[in-house]
Write a structure and sequence with these properties.
Length: about 240
């Protein structure tokens, strides 16, 4: 019988979470830490038994942070089924993390929507702007607006991170944010799974703003039928 990988996964997760959360960690190490965090948690999303064993080995607060991320990942897998073919996307490098932070904060100041909810939507929708291309429903831009919704709430360029983040805050505010974030998110995407996933990522960033620096480095992973997962790197293009 092969050895149980749970102990090794738990050790790696603790190292990764500690590194992301430590202000002394050099910025040059954050890309590898963020990608490792994503890979380790993705394995736990796919294997509930492994997750249970790993969770039992993790200390707090790492255990709670990982539990929240894994639950969000399960939500999103249930929301978005695997596809038979790769999408018509172009994967680009995201804008710098501090530049996006300024955009989220500007939107928060203008509309009262907590910055972390905007970052969480950006993460879920396009991995912080890495994905360029329409959704299966025809939504566009870094925050994935239908053209009809953009016509009402957008100002500027639907493909601009700054303009689409402001538009998302404007839309959420018009639908009850910040007083009713869950209700506003449900207007953004009519799914309780979506609301839960975005809220979990947002709450984690509000509790620990450095969590954003891990999420920022998450890559575009695309699930295909048959259980295959493909990482779409920067520069990938499927016309």
């Amino acid at each position: 019988m092969p050895p149980d990988p749970a102990a090794g996964v738990a050790t790696k997760l603790q190292t990764v979470e500690t590194g992301i959360g430590d202000p002394a960690t050099p910025a040059s190490q954050l890309p590898n830490l963020g990608e490792a965090q994503q890979d380790l948690e993705a394995a736990l999303v796919e294997d509930a038994g492994l997750y249970s064993r790993v969770s039992a080995l993790l200390p707090e607060p790492v255990r709670s942070a990982v539990a929240s991320d894994v639950t969000a990942g399960v939500d999103l897998e249930r929301l978005t089924p695997p596809r038979p073919t790769l999408p018509p996307w172009h994967i680009v490098a995201p804008a710098p993390a501090d530049e996006l932070q300024r955009d989220y904060r500007e939107a928060e100041a203008a509309f009262g929507v907590p910055w972390a909810y905007l970052a969480a939507i950006h993460l879920v929708e396009t991995r912080m702007g890495r994905i360029r291309g329409p959704s299966t429903a025809g939504a566009q831009g870094p925050m994935q607006f239908l053209p009809s919704t953009w016509a009402r709430y957008g100002q500027g360029d639907i493909n601009s991170d700054h303009d689409s983040i402001l538009a998302a805050a404007r839309y959420l505010h018009a639908n009850g944010a910040p007083a009713d974030m869950a209700g506003a998110l449900y207007h953004y995407n009519h799914s309780a799974l979506y609301v839960d996933a975005v809220s979990r990522y947002a709450r984690r960033m509000l509790a620990d703003p450095r969590a954003y620096l891990g999420y920022y480095h998450w890559q575009v992973r695309y699930r295909l039928t048959g259980g295959r997962v493909v990482v779409l790197p920067v520069g990938w293009h499927n016309p």
